Structures are given as structure tokens and as C-alpha cells.
Amino acid sequence: MSSIGSISLAGLQSATAQFQNAAGRIANPNSSSDIAGDIVDAVAAKANVSISLHMIRAEQEMTKALVDILV
Q1: Which of 13, 15, 24, 35 could join 48 in a cystine, given CB atoms 3.0 to 4.6 angstroms apart?
Q2: Do the beta carbons of residue 18 and residue 46 sit within 8 Å?
């Protein structure tokens, strides 16, 4: 896997963990955390997942284009 793919995968994993943590705090009625901040964290994590997936998709398309040129 290329460095772009590795970075994208790490970003995807980080965003997924961020979302799970925020969702856990939102779902816990006994949590003393700021619900608005947790919602912002969840929305930001969703955006980060989308960005990481777009990067992975772009890398795959670039790799395919390079293979097509070389073949």
C-alpha cells in the first residue's frame, strides 16, 4: 500500500474511533460531557471518514490510470 493509502487508512481508523467515542458519550444519559460538543465531534468524524474514503478512492483511480498507461 502506498503512503497515501496508509495515511488515508489511518485517518479512516482515527475518524471511526472519534465517532464511536462521541456516539458513546451522546448515548450515555449519565455522562457529564457537553452534548453539543459531542454532536460536533460526531459530525466532524463523519466528514473525516468521507475525506479519507475520497482519498482512498482517488489513489485507486490514479493507480488504475498508471497501470493502464504502462500496459
Answers
A1: 15
A2: no
Task: Encode pLDDT of 12-27 as tens digits.
Answer: 999 999 999 999 999 9
In the chain, the number of structural domains is 1
Where in the sequence is the domain holding 7, given as residue range(s)? 3-70
Nearest to 52 by CA among 3, 27, 15: 15
Q: Is the dihedral of CA 14, 17, 18, 19 positive or negative?
A: positive
Look up residue 10 and give its three cell numbers: 489511518
CA atoms of 34 and 42, how far apart (whole Å): 12
In the chain the first and final C-alpha atoms are separated, in Å, by: 20
Distance CA 71, CA 53 (A): 27
pTM of the model: 0.77
Phi, psi of 36 (to 5 degrees): -65, -45
